[in-house]
Amino acid sequence: NKELKKFRESLAEGDKIVTIGGIHAKIVKLTDTYAIIESEGTRLKLDRGSIAMEASRALNAPAKEEKK
Asked: Which residue in 13, 21, 40, 65 is deepest, having the highest Cβ count within 10 Å?
């Protein structure tokens, strides 16, 4: 997906993100291949491709309407 690739290329240190596994964290360090993220005082190193979305997008997404 071109949009997802463009998003991952635009990431920067300090961005708040959500991983594919659902972890909400802040990017502490970023390289071409991996990111070090911090959540609740714990740091993790993960593949850059494991970042699903920016947290602000996830939190501000419009609510889905229920089918009746």
From this structure: 13
Q: Dihedral through CA 54, CA 57, CA 4, CA 23, nearest 10?
A: 40
Rg of the Cα atoms in the chain:
13
**Segment 29-51, tens digit of pLDDT:** 999 999 999 999 999 999 998 99
What are the distances in angstroms from CA 53 to CA 5, 30, 62, 66?
Answer: 11, 15, 15, 24
Contact 13, 28 (CB under 8 A): yes
Quick one: tokens of 49?
């491709």
Both structure tokens of 25: 């964290």
